[in-house]
Design goal:
mainly beta; Porin; twelve-stranded antiparallel barrel; 2 helices; 13 strands; about 10% helix; about 55% strand
């Protein structure tokens, strides 16, 4: 089997998990949006770094009454070198996050005011490993507020608490900030987010979002690690959002 065929097979294989895969994000933080009742939201993200890229898959189902649930498959790393396409971290080393990680998610939204809502969510799961002794419990809990100001500007702010399995060594809690600003309504948006901390997840993403239709969005951004994040890398992120299963 050629390396190209192997690569395509792996991408399709892990994309199949996506039909079971969470939480709606900007780039790296929860957006504060809730998936409507009996509707699906799917997001696929590719982070490109020097010599490798990572895949993140999210799928969410709206339960109604401000609830949605879902599944995440994150930290799926592909190394661009001979004989080493897909990376499983076999030992429970927590200097950097374990990979890949599967998480079940749940989120609840509370409407506080006409243009402000508060969301509380959690993501619970484990790393994927061929050895049971190397499996570790992973968790990520957060609360974010979503505020709409001016002409449909969306500002997200809150905090998180997690463990080393998802974030690597460093602080366990931090601040979440994000924004979505329409430049040309329904056609072009500025979008970005920030995670505080000296762990490997402490980064900012500065980017844009372009809707291809009412149900398809393309996002592109630059990954910039925090100054005190010694584990982070600069990179490029590409994101696809599907607000339902049909294009229109």
């Amino acid at each position: 089997m050629t390396y190209l065929i192997r690569f395509i097979f792996l991408v399709l294989f892990f994309n199949s998990f996506s039909n079971l895969s969470a939480q709606q994000n900007l780039f790296n933080i929860p957006s504060g949006d809730i998936t409507p009742e009996k509707k699906f939201f799917y997001q696929h993200q590719l982070n490109f770094y020097d010599g490798k890229f990572e895949s993140k898959s999210h799928i969410v189902y709206g339960l109604g009454k401000g609830w949605d649930i879902g599944f995440n498959l994150i930290n799926s790393a592909f190394a661009m070198k001979k004989g080493h396409w897909f990376e499983f971290q076999q030992q429970p080393i927590t200097e950097t996050p374990l990979q890949p990680v599967a998480l079940f998610t749940a989120q609840k939204s509370f409407k506080v005011a006409d243009k402000f809502q508060l969301n509380v969510g959690t993501q619970l799961g484990s790393n994927i490993n061929r050895y049971a002794d190397n499996l570790r419990f992973a968790h990520y809990t957060y609360s974010v507020g979503l505020l709409e100001v001016f002409n449909h500007w969306k500002l997200t702010f809150g905090g998180y608490y997690s463990n080393d399995i998802l974030k690597g060594r460093g602080n366990d809690a931090g601040i979440l900030l994000g924004y979505e600003i329409p430049i040309v309504p329904h056609k072009f948006y500025l979008m970005g987010d920030f995670i505080s901390g000296n762990n490997s997840q402490g980064v900012s993403v500065i980017g844009l979002m372009v809707p291809a239709s009412k149900k398809v969005q393309f996002c592109l951004g630059a990954i910039v690690p925090n100054i005190n994040n010694k584990q982070g890398n600069y990179g490029i992120v590409f994101e696809l959002n599907l607000l339902g299963w049909n294009y229109w």
